[in-house]
Amino acid sequence: MNDQDRRSMPLFSIGIVMKLTELTARQIRYYEANDLIAPERTKGNQRLFSFNDVDRLLQIKDLLDKGLNMAGIKLLLDEENKETPEEAPKKEKKTPANLTDKELRGILKNELNEAGRYGKASMRQGELARFFIKH
Amino acid sequence: MNDQDRRSMPLFSIGIVMKLTELTARQIRYYEANDLIAPERTKGNQRLFSFNDVDRLLQIKDLLDKGLNMAGIKLLLDEENKETPEEAPKKEKKTPANLTDKELRGILKNELNEAGRYGKASMRQGELARFFIKH
DNA sequence: ATGAAATGTTAGGTTATTTGACATATAAAT
DNA sequence: ATTTATATGTCAAATAACCTAACATTTCAT
């Protein structure tokens, strides 16, 4: 079992994730409904979150604080998880606006940098996993 | 928050611990009843296990495989967790037999070494935490 | 004002966990 | 060869935790 396996192992109930992230169950479920996370389920359909999921939730929280909406967050997070292209299976999804994905991402990243200048200390990517998982 | 805090943070439900340790709920509760572990509880009285707890369960499983009983396991595990004596509060508990604690521990450790010679590969102490927690 | 986005709140149903009792298998002691 | 102790299985009733869905509230941009 490698590090990525460990990070994606479904371990935490929603109650624990609430404490780890200080998000409400309502928020967590809402983000799932908007495809920002996709936690596993038990046989009985209850959510089970991995380190990666919790990490992602912390990032989502951070980006929300900076004023992003679901669509923006999704774009950014999907972007980051695409940084490691193995075979690069080409299949771009269409954005609602008449901007190209690239244009949109550029705008978003600029805005984020702005926010970073005076916003609260940003929780960098992978915070929780770094906290718990050996590298 | 330091490493020991992370290791002792109550995170896992009994269902997850069953999968992580391949013990049944009955076994886990039995070991608790025999004071081999002492997981935290939620407000609603449900068990919440830490990395340390899971680690300990893996050790218990290993020692059971080697033929130890609850009393022997308790002695050994308490021993190991006493290796870091801060102020050494003297308060020895009496064993049922007419052997001193030291004698008993000596016997147990010898038997363990014997078992180690041909038994299955032993899960060393701290296995799970080492697996997940950064040092 | 209107509308959309994010979150709160409540209700009814399902799943997971708890304790306790009794059963079973095996090993140890008599 | 019985008896006794140990470890675990199984079942039941009670409760905690979680699920979805609906409706309410807040905030912010039009």
TrEMBL record, chains A, B:
Gene name, Swiss-Prot/TrEMBL: glnR
Biased composition (Basic and acidic residues): 79-90
HTH merR-type domain location: 11-79
Coiled-coil blocks: none
Gene3D superfamilies reported in the protein's UniProt record: 1.10.1660.10
Protein name according to UniProt: HTH-type transcriptional regulator GlnR
Keyword Hydrolase applies: no
SMART domains linked to this entry: HTH_MERR
Keyword annotations of the record: DNA-binding, Repressor, Transcription, Transcription regulation
Annotated source species: Oceanobacillus oncorhynchi
A family per Pfam: MerR_1
